[in-house]
Amino acid sequence: MTDIKEIVEKELEKNSGVLKLKPAWVARDFLPPGRRLGLNDAEYDVGERGYICERWLSSVTHADNAVGPEDEGLSYLRIDGEDITLKDAVDKAGDIIMGKEYADTHPGLGRLAKIYDFGARIPYHMHQMTRDARLVGRNSKDEAYYFLEDVDMGPHPETFFGVHPYIYEQKKYDVLLPHLVEWKDDLILRHSRAYLDVAGEGFFVPSGILHAPGTALTLELQEDSDVFAMLQALNAGKIISKELLFKDVSKKDREEKGERAILDQIDWPANGDLYFYENHHLINVEVEDSKQDGGQEHWIYYGTDKFSGKRMVVKPGKSFTFKEKGVFSILVWRGEGVFDGHKIEGGNFDCDELVITHDRAIKPITVKNTGKADLRIIKFFGPDINKDAPKIKKYKN
Fold this sequence. Notes:
Number of strands: 25
CATH topology of the largest domain: Jelly Rolls
CATH superfamily of the largest domain: Jelly Rolls
CATH architecture of the largest domain: Sandwich
Strand content: 25-35%
Shape: globular
Mean pLDDT: 96
């Protein structure tokens, strides 16, 4: 039997603490693809599975699709002659990937990054909070968005969030119930508010909040989970399966409460917040003392200890040196260069995704831009690594 830990140790020794990854493509069958992930046109259609609409990054999470391969969503290490998932590597060699102290207190990387690419708005849905997700043996799913730049925003670059404040203030939660029972149209969106998706900005969306993401090409960072309940019946011209409404509802709650079980899982105060936009909008925040002649970093995911993320920009012909507090992964979005001795290039699936282990991350790393345009890299961190990340200023009703 292959000794996964031994293979991972040898790879890390060879690559000075860096793991190279292959892309993990995920299909969805309830929406058309946006076709902006860099695949050939014919590669998006995967038959009964639907279309490739997402790329999961440094993923140890299985995609919870009704139809699909057992390893859908899982990232694989790029090691010649080996077929090892990042999940297996973390499970068997977590101490050398995450650092012993972190691995002793965290069961895994604890976050999932993905690019989602849809040709229509995602149906109005929510992710169960911890108390409800646990009832079906799952994790909650707080998430945050960053709307990628230099790419078409799609036909509907606006996202619905929450409900109109009066619904919470007057406790008129049942206004949503007929839409769930009848399951025939998209008029449930009339009870929500939409905000423009702006490239280079984003939103923080905790579990329990209703949302219908727009068509901007979105880089999402979230808790390690694929839990959800769809509340919108009609989307992109077709009725989606009502089973998606109850996907993560316990059998007992479904039998006893029916559609009302979903209403009990919604975080009504957060959904009806008068200052929802102000309390969830993410702008770029300069990373303190990060500015160098060669480039700069900004926080793009923050406001929670569950995950965090930064955007690094390195100027053409320049270098940028940094170090971090723990294990992280990167996606090279644009440009080309060398990351700690490893070739990187945005859009080249052979060299645009890396995991940097704890022991390498805490020492200085130099990134060189060898191209003629800005080198843009996104960094992803799991829970409790960047407790110094900015907070979102809170506005109160």
